Amino acid sequence: MKLSMWRRRGHRFHHSDGNRIAVRFAYEWHDDSRNWFRSYGNENWEFDDNGLMRRRFACINDLPIKESDRKYFWPLGRRPDDHPGLSDLDL
């Protein structure tokens, strides 16, 4: 399965001792058959002293959605700064 046309929205919700953060995220994408999905979950990232990611733990759930239920419509590339956050979109 090929992940296509995906858009991601994340929200950092915890920062600890300077080298760890936790992120809540959701992204939308479709497969080769144009079946749409919203993937959402949490990630924990740990960085080494050079700022490179040392560990990543993720819990990701894929939810099939109708194309009409999509919430992310910006053009491919960087998300617009004024795009609503996850909580604003009830995600």
Question: If you had to describe this structure to a student in words, what would you say it looks like?
Answer:
- The chain starts with a strand and ends in a 26-residue tail after the last strand.
- The protein is elongated and about 45 Å long.
- The model has no long low-confidence stretch (mean pLDDT 79).
- Strand 2 and strand 3 form a beta hairpin.
- The protein is an all-beta fold and 91 residues long.
- It has a single domain, classed as Nuclear Transport Factor 2, Chain: A, CATH 3.10.450.
- A 4-stranded antiparallel sheet has the order 1-2-3-4, with no helix packed on it.
In terms of structural class, how would the helical and strand content be classed?
Answer: mainly beta
Instruction: Count up the domains.
Output: 1
> What would CATH call the architecture?
Roll
**CA-atom Rg in angstroms:** 15 Å
Provide mean pLDDT, rounded: 79
Spans where pLDDT lies below 50 across 5 or more residues: none
For the biggest sheet, the summary is: 4 strands, antiparallel
Shape: elongated
Q: CATH topology, which one?
A: Nuclear Transport Factor 2, Chain: A
User: Can you write the helix and strand succession as a string?
Assistant: EEEE
Distance between the first and last residues' Cα = 25 Å
- Report the sheet-strand fraction: over 45%
